[in-house]
Amino acid sequence: MPMNWIHLDGLTLRYELRGSGAQTLVLLHELGGSLESFDALMSELGEGRRILRYDLRGAGLSEKPRSSFSFDDHVCDLDRLLTALGIEGPIDIAGVAAGAAVAVSFALAYPDRVSALALCAPALSVDADRVHYLARRSELCMRSGMRAVAAETLDRSYPPALRRDRNTYLTYLGRFLGNDPVGYAHNNLAFAEVDLRGRLRDIPHRCLVLAGAHDLLRPEAQVAALALMIPHADYARIDEAGHLMQVQAPAELARRLLAFLAPPAARPVLPRAS
């Protein structure tokens, strides 16, 4: 995979832009992930569109600021990245977990620049207990490194029932352990700020909301309730996935995304959130 970096004002991001076509799909990864989280999904999506994926600030091989940053910085980063790459037309965005929060916030801030949203195991709010947990995890990984938080984190996002493909799991574990502890800690604190529930009814775009049947972090009932708050949302469950459906069930996720993003005449009828 060719690696590209773009130097924005005061920040460098790693990205990949591949494919061709009139439409661009942007993929936004989860907390603790990187653009490699979408490797298996990329091979399933095929041709016919441009696909942009990148490492969020503090993650992957993007720059790791040593000072803290906010959730809103991630939204601004996407704006600046698209502008720098000359991507002007309305885009489709698929965000996983915390990446879905960036997708929603960007769509609300720049509604004319977005065509459709796919929200996969969306983490759009953080309750008080989890705010404290994220603060504790942030402090622990900065003090003791990523291994100190790996087991507790992955037991919920990648539960043992989904580890039958050991190579896929161990690859994900290796990437997780390779995270920069400071960048990961800052991102924990940044995403602890998120609460988009009060703004979901303002989303004007078509949305696909997907839940993983084995998701221990964002259970199906919680995701279905979020879908009800979005005016133009379709809802579906992916049976063989947990919180990281692009890793755990890439073929099924690709099938859902391609159907959702197909031209209107080719779209299957999905259940409306109701």
TrEMBL record:
The organism encoding this protein is Bradyrhizobium oligotrophicum S58
Domain AB hydrolase-1 as annotated: residue spans: 24-249
Q: State the taxonomy lineage.
A: Bacteria, Pseudomonadati, Pseudomonadota, Alphaproteobacteria, Hyphomicrobiales
Q: Which Pfam families match?
A: Abhydrolase_1
This one is known as Alpha/beta hydrolase fold protein
Please give the Gene3D superfamilies that the UniProt record associates with this protein. Answer: alpha/beta hydrolase
Taking the record's annotation, the residue ranges forming a coiled coil are none
Sorted UniProt keywords: Hydrolase
Which GO CC terms are listed, alphabetically? membrane
**This protein's record includes keyword Hydrolase:** yes
A GO molecular function term, named singly, is: hydrolase activity
